[in-house]
Design a protein that fits this description.
Layout: H1 4-17, H2 25-29, H3 43-60, H4 64-67, H5 76-89, H6 93-105, E1 113-115, H7 142-148, E2 169-174, E3 181-186, E4 192-197, H8 207-219, H9 226-250, E5 255-259, H10 269-272, E6 286-290, H11 293-310, H12 318-336, H13 338-341, E7 363-368, H14 384-387, E8 407-411, H15 418-428, E9 432-436, E10 453-454, E11 461-463, E12 467-469, E13 485-486, H16 495-510
Parallel strand pairs: 4-5, 5-8, 8-9, 9-13
Antiparallel strand pairs: 1-11, 2-3, 3-4, 6-7, 6-12, 10-11
Helix pairs in contact: 1-5, 1-6, 5-6, 8-9, 11-12
């Protein structure tokens, strides 16, 4: 159990984040007695750690300027003042650690957090292992090969609410033997509503896809390696999802409900999947990154990929070559202008400024969440591999528009990261209406490998997101996505009753008789 004084320090920082007024910081500790010190406590070193943490956030944390604005709904100058006062009152390492941990938690950013590090003090020099060689799966059976590449579900397979327990529901896919739980429910008014569950936007979460991919590769008598198996699983992810959508459409469903409740994210599939739900053009969000070495590395990777494709003698499509040449020029220009986007963000601890990504935000635009282009028309099959170098969603061109009717997306506080990208892109392109509760507010994570912020004295380690996806109104996706049709949790209501309320909400919306909230 934590000491009273530690808990009061935690409470002080947390209340500031919530916008509450507090008594002078000295009063937080006035009525308590510090526990006996086990080791020497260096208050100045902890204060230096905090100064270092803030400086690193100024250069690496992509959402800092957003949270320094009134729109970000955090008073950073007040939070900083109370954090400094709480650190000054800390009397041991546990208290100081709690203060810094709660300073970070006050941002409510799912990608900004304290991360565990090995206790190097207990590890004798020279005892750490080097990276082992990659596992060769060529001579493995299917079960071992799938396990070797990390396939395994850690997500909730059933719907986030028990729709399958409601009258009139017919299950089409259990989500286990075939990816994605799916079904159709006939409503009280006789309408058919298709429901598809997407628990995570990552192919490795779906063991059934590995089985399908393995069988596809072995039937073609390919020598199977890990890269081929992963790529085949990725394609199977969209193939199966598209098949469910086509089956629901063929069954005569009037609308579709996509359940992403509890979906914490994944990868680019969140952005790409939006293309399956409409035949209209879908434009990805503008992508910004923390200006500096991380963004430079990202641009260089993309430039190398596009140059390699452009130099391929088999790349003969004149139109696409011209577009790729323009994309290369855009990224070269962004790289050259990077230094001009660097900005001293020390102001965030002194004042609030209106949000403007193009202002003193220490952010640089690096294309879109789909690559250099926000949208490209469908490419011929033979050209997809080239188009996908400048518009990543081209990888799923053959599945575009698998569903073309009304779409609703069910969200909750567990929705974050790539799942938020999925919800945001569909909303901002006017493809869907969302219902449920606000999403968790993780936003964009990392476009490059995470570079841990390690504090010099305490060795506490933090990770920070390096990217921002902008909404259609210019806001930062990290603010969370508020539903169009709120379906809040009601005390005493069962999950079955809430599931029924979700279905009735969709039905009222379809019939144009949604009640005013």
């Amino acid at each position: 159990m934590k000491s009273d004084e530690t808990c009061k320090l935690v409470l002080a920082v947390a209340l500031v984040a919530a916008g509450c007024s507090l008594a002078p910081a000295a009063e937080v500790m006035a009525t308590t007695v510090a526990p006996p010190l086990v080791t020497a406590f260096d208050a100045h070193a902890w204060q230096a750690d905090y100064a270092f943490l803030k400086q690193q956030l100024q250069t690496q944390y992509a959402n800092l300027a957003w949270f320094a604005s009134p729109q970000g709904k955090i008073n950073l100058p007040q939070l900083d003042a109370y954090t400094r006062k709480a650190l000054a009152l800390a009397e041991n390492d546990e208290q100081a650690k709690a203060v810094l941990r709660n300073f970070i938690d006050a941002f409510h950013d799912g990608h900004l957090r304290l991360i565990a590090r090995p206790n190097t003090a207990l590890t004798p020099p020279g005892t750490t292992e080097s990276e082992p060689p990659a596992v060769a799966i060529e001579n493995m059976d299917m079960e071992n090969a799938c396990a070797a590449i990390g396939v395994g579900s850690s997500s909730r397979v059933p719907f986030s609410l028990p729709f399958e327990s409601l009258p009139g529901f017919t299950l089409l896919s259990d989500g286990v033997t075939q990816a994605f739980r799916a079904g159709i429910i006939r409503t009280e008014q006789g309408n058919k509503l298709g429901i598809v569950r997407i628990p995570r936007f990552r192919e490795a979460e779906y063991p059934g896809l590995c089985t399908q991919a393995w069988e596809t590769l072995t039937s073609a008598k390919h020598g199977i390696n890990a890269k081929q198996l992963r790529n085949a699983m990725a394609d199977a992810w969209f193939e199966v999802l598209a098949a469910h959508l086509l089956r629901i459409k063929a069954a005569g469903a009037q609308a579709l409900l996509i359940d992403v409740g509890g979906n914490g994210g994944g990868n680019d599939f969140g952005d790409w999947s939006a293309r399956l739900l409409t035949a209209r053009a879908v434009h990805s969000a503008p992508l910004w990154m923390a200006a500096g070495p991380i963004a430079q590395a990202y641009l260089e990777e993309e430039l190398q990929s596009m140059r390699k494709a452009y130099d391929d003698p088999n790349f003969a499509n004149t139109t696409q070559r011209s577009m790729m040449q323009a994309a290369i020029a855009m990224f070269e220009q962004a790289r050259a202008a990077m230094s001009a986007r660097s900005c001293d963000l020390s102001w965030v601890w002194q004042e609030q400024r209106p949000w403007h990504a193009g202002g003193c935000s220490n952010l640089a635009q690096v294309g879109f969440a789909s690559g250099p282009y926000a949208y490209l028309p469908v490419s011929p099959d033979a050209e997809t591999s080239y188009a996908s170098r400048m518009y990543w969603a081209a990888n799923v061109d053959k599945y575009r528009g698998s569903w073309t009717g009304p779409v609703y997306v069910l969200t909750d506080r567990g929705v974050g990261s790539a799942a938020e990208a999925f919800v945001a892109i569909l909303k901002d392109n006017a493809v869907v209406k969302t219902l449920g509760t606000i999403t968790g507010g993780s936003g964009c994570g990392n476009m490059q490998a995470i570079r841990a912020i390690v504090l010099p004295h305490s060795k506490l380690s933090f990770q920070a997101p390096d990217c921002v996806r902008l909404r259609a109104d210019g806001s930062d996706e990290v603010m969370g996505i508020t539903p169009d049709l709120p379906v809040d949790v009601v005390t005493g209501e069962s999950e079955r009753a809430r599931a029924a309320r979700v279905i009735k909400t969709v039905e009222r919306e379809l019939s144009g008789t949604v009640l005013a909230h």
